Amino acid sequence: MFAPVHGQVRRALVSRFPYAVFYRVESRRVVVLTSKNCVLTMAEHLIKWVLFCLMACTVPVLYYMFVVGGFLPLIAIVALSFRGVWGFVLFNAIHVLIYGALFYWIARFIAQRLVSLSYGRRIAIFAAVSVALIAIAFLPVYGIGHHESQSMNLYQLFRRGLG
To answer: Which of these, 34, 6, 7, 39, lies nearest to 21 by C-alpha position?
Structure first.
């Protein structure tokens, strides 16, 4: 029997796996409240949100508004919304919703695959993907304009005020 962690609820850690089983002992039975892989769930959430934020800040997505087009990260599209009129804000919101959902799905997919690997491999692959996403910011792949626009890196894009 394990010590109570909250009231009558007890926690049992399963050997050789980072699983925790929460249960309550009643007069004639044991009621299992939940069985959850706490460590891997937290790791999966952290990986998912870090990858999502990195993609939102660095991955250039196709941005098109009437005659203006280019490749911008989601964070730049959000920044454009704050300096535009309401029609542009709505148009930008559509970009953010579509690409945001896509990035979230990709980040969730990668995180689910990574947590099934050993700890060393998980860290190595996560670090490699993170470095690759950060490296995108230094490449001259961003730009926006009415016609041909000069490509620039992320720092130059924000320094010039998003075009």
So the answer is: 34
Cα end-to-end span (Å), the chain: 65
Query: pTM (2 decimals)?
Result: 0.71
Q: What is the mean pLDDT of residues 41-60?
A: 88
Which residues are bridge partners to 23 per DSSP? Answer: 10, 32
In sign, the C-alpha dihedral spanning 35, 37, 42, 46 is: negative
pLDDT digits (tens, 9 = 90+) for 108-154: 999 988 877 888 888 899 999 999 999 999 999 888 776 556 788 88
Order of strands across the sheet with 61-65? 61-65, 68-72, 143-145
> Percent of the chain having pLDDT more than 90?
26
Q: What is the mean pLDDT of the chain?
A: 81
3-state secondary structure the chain: CCCEEECCEEEEECCCCCCEEEEEECCCCEEEEEEECHHHHHHHHHHHHHHHHHHHHHCCEEEEECCEEEEECHHHHHHHHCCCCHHHHHHHHHHHHHHHHHHHHHHHHHHHHHCCCCHHHHHHHHHHHHHHHHHHCCCCCEEEECCCCCCECHHHHHHCCCC
